[in-house]
Amino acid sequence: MSEQVLDRRALNRATLARQLLLARHQIPALDAVHALAGLNAQTSKDPYVGLWARLTDFAPDDLADLLHSKQVVRACLMRCTQHLVTAADYQVVQPALAPMLARVQRSTFGKRTQGVDLEELVGLGTAALTGVTLTRPQLGRKLKERWPDHEGSALGWTFQYLAPVVHPPPDGLWGRKGGVTPFALAEDWLETTLDEPDVGRLILLYLAAFGPATQRDLHAWSGLSRLGDVVDGLRPQLVTFTNEAGIELFDLPDAPRPGPETPVPVRLLPEFDNLMVGYRDRSRVMTKEQQRRVCDGDLIAATLLVDGFVRGIWKLELTDDTATLMIELLDDNGGGDVVLTSAERKAVEAEGLDLLRFVTPELEHRVQLV
Length: 370
Description:
The chain is α+β, with helices and mostly antiparallel strands. The protein folds into three domains: 6-190, no CATH class; 199-251; 267-369, no CATH class. It is built from 15 helices and 16 strands. It has helices at 8-18, 29-35, 46-52, 60-68, 87-109, 118-129, 136-144, 152-162, 186-190, 199-210, 215-222, 228-234, 274-277, 288-294, 342-359, and strands at residues 5-6, 39-40, 72-76, 82-86, 134-135, 165-166, 182-185, 239-243, 248-251, 267-269, 295-296, 299-300, 302-306, 309-318, 322-329, 364-369. The strands form five sheets. A five-stranded mixed β-sheet has the order 10-13-14-15-16, sandwiched between helices. The protein has a three-stranded mixed β-sheet with strand order 1-8-9. The protein has a three-stranded antiparallel β-sheet with strand order 2-4-3. A hairpin with a 5-residue loop joins strand 3 and strand 4. Helix 5 packs across helix 8 (152-162) and helix 6 crosses helix 8. The longest helix is centred in the first third of the chain and has 23 residues, at 87-109. The protein starts with a strand and ends with a strand. The mean pLDDT is 95. InterPro entries: AlkZ-like. It comes from Kribbella italica.
């Protein structure tokens, strides 16, 4: 029998179901962070807006409380970028990603740490961090005492890449702006021993949140490579499909795959949202022309979804008393020739006002479609 072909709309609806975007869900924020396989946390507010878009009655304190209680942690993980994940998932994700993080250390700081025994560096850094939190510059200065001819910043970054560390609060809290980020040993902070590396568990976590997906999608999300043997070993636990280009897709047997005509509400998603960074092939949510507008170098714009697909990018403009949500509409060619129905326009404006009330409750609010 030939494998079932999933077209663009079928993949879109399956993805939105996994990413909790077919409707707002009345579930605890902790369950949502797990279901999403984590949230990108390059900036402090993005995970909060991402959860607001997916949950009923979500408040910033819901996530802040999880960070303070150590049920959710912020750490350098997928693609060597900052993410929020549950403490339980961190124990799966970090050991599995360790080879990728070590590769990034070699490519970024290899020349600047020549002559340094990296195993000794990890040992000394672990001893210095045991029972305390330190900023990267503070740890770098301690390590420089052993290697005075090397840059403290390179030594500190190297430790962060090679050792399992997390960034405790106030890092990751709503409204935190910049500042020097402290970190702690993960096993100290979580008061547990990390699991042994198991890339298979990482792949299953990914497929639950992002499937159906290709091997290249998995590589793009995780930063890992050469996962063919691991995926092959998981085949008895998986189902397979093909996309319209004939490329094999993997998924969990019992995962939701709603019909392609399933109705989808308007949604406003933050910068670096999971939906935009979880795949190598992003055609299930936007065209290549739109992607050139949404993905600008290392930046991923905040997006508007209409009928489950990208129809715009947005940003906030603030004055002393007014917050304006500026939405630039995008057609399939990446231009502004978009025609929204009256109902769609009203839905976009209503969602925009709700977002403004969430982000800037103290200001007057305006939504402007460009």
